Amino acid sequence: MSNNQKHPRCHARTVAEIVQDIRITAAALREIFGIERHVAINKAVCLAEEAYGLEMSAIKPVVYGPVKGVKHMEKSRFEVYLHSVLTEAQIGLLKESLLAGRRIYFYGAEGTGKSMLCSILRHNGFDGVFEPGSVVIGGSDDPIGPFTLPKNPRGVVLLELYGLKKHLDLTEVLGFSRSDIVAWLTA
């Protein structure tokens, strides 16, 4: 079985996209935790190895270099938070789905940030976001686990969370306002 069959989410990723995800994650870690650049990059590389199921040592030197042709824009606090739980591609899909009014269902292992992200979005008026246990999945004796998907997912955007990189306390969650999210959506 090839690496792409074992880890299908790395199949469509190019090295450049993976490097960009690592750099964005490292920048978010630095901004959120205030850690040194090399520590943030090493942590981001470890997270990418887990998420993509790949050995990253060969591309690690590339991660430290400057990003050609990428303009670094100031990110909102909400966008920095999103980078701590989603990949760049998932953030784009989330943005597109929220703007289109599509229902979004987050799933993934326990502790990846599903409940927190749903709570933030619901608290700010985005009611079309769900996670395992927040909707009726089937009969009352159907087990509901972190990877349980809706029985009829037609028209629902499914986003798997791979790993929460920062836990927020309640005051930080309440600190995100609808205007923060709308500003990110319209940026």
Textual characterization of the structure:
- The chain is mainly alpha-helical.
- It has 2 domains: 15-64; 77-186, no CATH class.
- The chain has 9 helices and 3 strands; from the N terminus they run H-H-H-H-H-H-E-H-E-E-H-H.
- It has helices at residues 3-6, 15-33, 37-52, 60-64, 77-83, 88-100, 114-123, 170-175, 178-186, and strands at residues 103-108, 129-130, 156-161.
- A 3-stranded parallel β-sheet has the order 2-1-3, with helices on one face.
- Strand 1 (103-108), helix 7 (114-123) and strand 2 form a beta-alpha-beta unit.
- Helix 2 (15-33) packs across helix 3.
- The protein is globular, with a radius of gyration of 17 Å.
- The protein starts with a helix and ends with a helix.
- The model is unreliable at 1-12, 67-72 and 136-141 (pLDDT under 50).
Entry summary:
This protein has 187 residues and is mainly alpha-helical. The chain contains nine helices and three strands, in the order H-H-H-H-H-H-E-H-E-E-H-H. The protein is 48% helix and 7% strand.
